[in-house]
Amino acid sequence: MSVSSETDPLLLNSTGYKHIQSKGQTHETRVYWRRFYILAAASLVGFCQGWIWNTWGPIQDAAEHVFHWSDSTIALMANWGPIAYIASVLFFSWLLDVKGLRWSVVITAAVVAVGAGIRCISMEPLKATWLNHVGLFLNGVAGPVAMSAPPLISAVWFPPRQRTTATAVTALSTYYGLAFSFVIGPAFVPSYMQLNVTSNITKVFHNESVNQPGYNTTDNLDALREDIRLYTYVEFAASASAFLLVLLYFPSRPPIPPSISAGCERNDFIKGLKRLRRHRAFWLICLAYGICTGDSGVRIDFQLIEVVF
């Protein structure tokens, strides 16, 4: 099969499909409009995963005062993402390869929603601390599919000439959610110092006594606690909506593949792992990707926190 036959437009007639002759066989291919729903639903799951993963960084000051957390606690909250990723990557790699997209994405969306919902149970400092550790670990478990499914979605649902764009949109959804958290977080939850300044200015205009910093700030802490509660509710609502979307409709593949390569039989998972283990180019790609992603991810997170505060 030539390269040109794989990249030819697939919509040649009103029915939206054509027949391709290859080695004496007829291969029917077709593209479906529903592929954009699949793309949007998967992107929303990735968006929520990235958003919830970075809940506490942008509102670190408020969280530390409300829950009595330290900087190391905030750092551990973010670290649960890569820790859980390492713990679950082999399982979800197997699930994607053997069970397909539906099982993988539905389980991922469910884990994200459950992780977000757990954190809404209590705002009492000790309980909230443990609930957030568990919730963010579950959110991190969803990382492998959120970051690895995009190429599979584009290969299974999109024709070759659209795969690059489809992969980019879905793959970047996690980073869109991460960036969004720096906007939406402070919008819902102001910093503790900002709240104190605003409160004191208000008292000045009403000829009331101004409290010294750190004195009689119970009202401010209660207000911040309610803001955080509302913020976690919003995150849970978004993640639950994403879960419902993929639960209602998210097939592993279309009835007719969009290209010949999408309909090809895949290698056995175990055999594929054994082949990759001895594939030098694969390890070089992994090393390059790991260094770039790991280093930039850590640096960007801390730099943005410094900018916010």
* Uncertain spans: 1-22, 198-216
Q: Average the pLDDT over all residues and give the rounded result.
A: 81
**Distance linking N and C termini:** 57 Å
Biggest sheet character: 2 strands, antiparallel
Shape: elongated
Strand order of the largest sheet: 1-2
Task: Tell me the strand percentage band.
Answer: under 5%
Rg estimate, integer Å: 24 Å
- Count of β-strands: 2
Order of helices and strands: HEEHHHHHHHHHHHH
Number of helices: 13
Protein structure class:
mainly alpha
Report the helical percentage: over 70%
What key attributes describe this structure?
309 residues, 72% helix, elongated
Write the layout of secondary structure elements.
Elements: H1 3-7, E1 17-22, E2 25-30, H2 35-53, H3 60-67, H4 71-98, H5 101-118, H6 125-141, H7 143-157, H8 160-171, H9 173-188, H10 192-205, H11 218-248, H12 269-277, H13 280-308
Helix pairs in contact: 2-5, 2-7, 2-8, 2-9, 2-11, 3-11, 4-6, 4-7, 5-6, 5-7, 5-11, 7-8
Describe this structure in words.
The chain is elongated. Residues 1-22 and 198-216 have low confidence and may be disordered. The termini are far apart. The protein is built from 13 helices and two strands. A two-stranded antiparallel ribbon has the order 1-2. Helix 4 (71-98) runs parallel beside helix 7 (143-157), helix 5 runs antiparallel to helix 6 and helix 7 runs antiparallel to helix 8 (160-171). With 309 residues, the protein is mainly α. Strand 1 (17-22) and strand 2 (25-30) form a beta hairpin.
